[in-house]
Amino acid sequence: MKLPSEVPIMTLPNATLFPQALLPLYIFEPKYRQMLLDSLNTNRMFSVAMQKPGRTRETPSPIAGLGLIRVSVGHNDGTSHLILQGIARVELEETVRYKPYRVQRIRPIESPPCNELVVDALLAKVRELLEERVKLGMPFPFPVMSKEKSSKAAETAGFSAKDVLEYLDKLSDPEEVADLVSCAVLSGPVERQTILETVDLEARLKHLVHFLMAEITRQRKDKNR
Hints:
The structure is a single chain. The radius of gyration is 18 Å and the shape is globular. Helices cover 38% and strands 27% of the residues. The chain folds into 2 domains: 6-108, Roll (Archaeosine Trna-guanine Transglycosylase, Chain: A, domain 4), CATH 2.30.130; 116-223, Methane Monooxygenase Hydroxylase, Chain G, domain 1. The chain is of the alpha+beta class. A 5-stranded mixed β-barrel has the order 1-3-4-5-6. A two-stranded antiparallel ribbon has the order 7-8. It is built from 6 helices and 8 strands.
């Protein structure tokens, strides 16, 4: 798929768009309504960037997810619900314009070569930690669109532990495993953004292992209180 050199940017406080992941969005602000309309009439792509913490003005983080609009449902009041699928990590470069919505040049980011033996060992550790989460009854909090029909298009439900583990076992690409597990399991926006910004796969998996171990440790302490 050919990626554009510049795309609209949606800046959100706690959202992270990982490659291959699905992100449900509700579009209601006038500038984003226009952005959606323009995107649907061109390449159906825009980028979701996390707002830099502590900033009052719109300030997107420099590493973001580029997404492709898979489904868009418009409503009579001008709002829309859509499902965006992540297709690439991108670095946001110079701003082309700010109004009616922000548009920036982007540079796709590719992971450097890695040590397959180290990656395999880290993936095995991730799988082990996910099993431990299941035993502790920990949730898989990342929202996905509900599979059931509903009048509320924004209704979401969590991945079940079984869904995540079964899907993980079917994946052959370690990058997909790292990103989709992070998407499905990590509830903290800082942790998710850290994974998104980590280009090196070994380092990304090490971050993921660290975050999973920290969550499990907190859960064990809470159960023992």
